[in-house]
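Chapter review: from sequence to fold.
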Amino acid sequence: MYILAQHRLLLMFALPLACLVFAVLLNLYRGKRWGYFLIPTVFTLAMINIFTGQWVNAAFLNWFGTPGTAIIVDKRDAGWLLNEQRVDEYDVLVRMADGRDVVAQFDDMSASIWPPRNLILIPALNDPFVVKYVPGFPRNIVIMSDESAYGKRWLLNDARRPVERARNLHEASPDNAMFAQEYRQALQDFLAAYGEVLSASDREQYEKKLEAIAAPAP
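The token string follows.
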């Protein structure tokens, strides 16, 4: 699984080449040509792994991995771009369940993160986070974003977006009853989901906003 996630580009070339060598040897020594038909299949699987290798690894470690903690101790430019964006490499100190330490490495494209999302949520430098790993090979880790402090902060900020959108609509047109109702509902949903994890001051602030826009008595 580690190889699938960390060396996807290498596998895209190495696997079809190995399959070609196998097919040639099979034809030379056994007179069988069916090995050549494996090459397109192997190449297709290698291409699919380019986009899914880290997710397969993340799912495997989420199910079978052992919990631990980690912290990024170094971040540097990997020296290449993806979609005109800089790709970074990371050195990570992993603290295993038995207290031992091991150093792991990944980059923006090979990082295994659970749960999978359509964005790459990498912790900040020196910000501890939760991981899972296989004891026999602890350098292969999956970042458990939703169990980590940085991921919980991201979830909270993401949950604020519908509230802020509804607030902007309401403030732009305060006499629009539909916008007022949308804002009221967004505040109620946010407080129901995150009221217990908000700081006392933040919770009080949102409760006051809800009271200010409370539906008028019939």
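Two observations follow directly from the output. The chain has a mean pLDDT of 85. Residues 64-144 form a domain with the OB fold (Dihydrolipoamide Acetyltransferase, E2P) fold (CATH 2.40.50).
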